[in-house]
Specification:
There is one protein chain. The chain has ten helices and five strands. It starts with 6 loop residues before the first helix and ends with a strand. Strands 1-5-4-2-3 form a five-stranded mixed sheet. β2 and β3 form a beta hairpin. By secondary structure, the chain is an alpha+beta fold.
Length: 289
């Protein structure tokens, strides 16, 4: 009988031919020139393998010559097509680059900035985790511990120059009003009282660049959202006829107008509440479960 090439020998025979590095390219719809070249090489390899396996051993020289001719023809055609494909690719690439919009570049910059910001936030979070509680957290915990036996807790008031007056207004309104209008009303009442009792308040006044005299200080306090302090609390206690009790971390409560029969209005003074420093909050009844 006729002896045919075993499949293993056919594989060994195919290995001597150079079908290129991309012989395993993808075969997909809309394929590129390179992908088509890879597909055609794979198809030629399968064809050659079938030719060898189906041919008698004595015809090996003829099969080998035919294989070499088929391979040379394919390589020659691919060599002609490849420069054309590269030129087309360069033209297309040039069009893409030339038409790249500013919006795309801006999007990339935003993405990079967002990534950098996320990395920065992660570093900050890690540093805070390793650094332990900050001053604000320590202060809030201390005040909460002092307020709890009194049945009170911290009630946050908007942080601005009106915070002292907003805190008092919230207490006076039955824990409802922290409006700027209410704060301005109390501010002006306190200033009028200080101006009417200069001898009681001027000795505690400390001059500043913007308010070198007591009169200038009163005008500044009346017309701008300047932060109030102990003088304003004392004036408000006297005007309103009520005690005002201020809770501070690590210290006994400070009571203004202690001889008054009504009150007290409960406030919290925090030195580390925000980046700007000092801040007044209200103290509210503690909600127990």
């Amino acid at each position: 009988g006729t002896r045919l090439f075993p499949a293993r020998m056919a594989d060994d025979f195919l290995a001597v031919f150079d079908f290129g590095d991309d012989a395993d390219g993808a075969d997909t719809p809309g394929e590129t020139v390179e992908e088509r070249h890879g597909r055609e090489k794979r198809e030629l390899m399968e064809r050659i393998k079938e030719m060898m396996i189906g041919s008698p051993k004595g015809e090996r020289p003829r099969v080998q010559a035919e294989v070499e001719q088929l391979n040379a023809e394919l390589k020659d055609r691919h060599a002609r097509e490849k420069p054309e494909a590269e030129g087309l690719a360069q033209d297309v690439t040039g069009l893409k680059i030339g038409s790249r919009s500013k919006a795309v570049k801006a999007k990339q910059r935003r993405k990079k900035k967002a990534q950098e910001e996320a990395e920065r936030e992660a570093r900050i979070a890690e540093a805070q985790k390793n650094a332990g509680p900050d001053k604000r957290e320590i202060e809030v915990n201390a005040i909460a511990t002092q307020l709890e036996p009194l049945g009170l807790c911290i009630h946050n008031i908007p942080a601005d120059g009106h915070c002292l007056f907003r805190s008092v207004a919230w207490q006076l309104s039955g824990q409802a009003d922290t409006s700027e209008a209410a704060a301005w009303d109390l501010r002006r009442k306190a200033v009028r009282h200080m101006e009417a009792h200069v001898a009681d308040f001027a000795p505690f006044f400390e001059p500043t660049d913007s308010a070198p005299t007591f009169e200038a200080y009163c005008e500044e306090m009346r017309s701008t959202p300047s932060w109030g302090g102990q003088m304003e609390l004392r004036a408000l206690g006297q005007v309103l006829g009520t005690k005002i009790r201020v809770h501070t971390a690590g210290a006994p409560p400070l009571v203004m107008n202690e001889e008054a029969a009504s009150g007290p209005i409960e406030l919290v003074f925090q030195q580390h509440a925000y980046g700007l420093g000092e801040h007044y909050n209200a103290a509210a009844p503690l909600q127990r479960d």
